[in-house]
Amino acid sequence: MAVVIRKLLTIIEEQRIEGGAEVSPPLIKVAAVAVIKNPLVGKIGADLAPLIEVGGDLGVLLAERIFEVLPKSDVKSFGKSAIVGADGELEHAAALIHPTFGKRMRVPLGRGRAVIPSSKKSGGEGCSIDVPLVYTEALSVASHYDSMEIRVHDAPHPDEVVVALVMTNGGRPHARIPGLQLRDVKGQDGVS
Hints:
By secondary structure, this protein is an alpha+beta fold.
């Protein structure tokens, strides 16, 4: 199924100072966002297969857009989110970002054992969403629990969905809470 994309955005956040101290190297968060027409609006209970297929395509498209800014080798954390417009179902957002999005997104990345964290909600134009982030190879790495807020000023329209993928080059600046440390990651199960 072909999807109508109204808008694509790439958002780059570069954090150089945190808590008054320099962040070196700077933490770079990159979000690739697509605003798409929801083909299942008005079809309550419809088969989600078309959105699941589109989700896989969006996973690849958004990952490739991020790699234009952040090299694959620099990617250390990731997350995904979707906001469905008022005329759609929350399940439409879930169909876009769950069954195939992550599987297909991992192909161009070439790795990513951890479960990709996600959030989804219904909302209107200018609605924000926090995209949760974890370390790509082990979701238990405490230093990489983070998020990035995404907002598109004119989306989603009632018949649209905003789909976002975020990747970063590191964890939180000056991270020091207890928990699994990068140096202790086994990288075998995506958790530890």
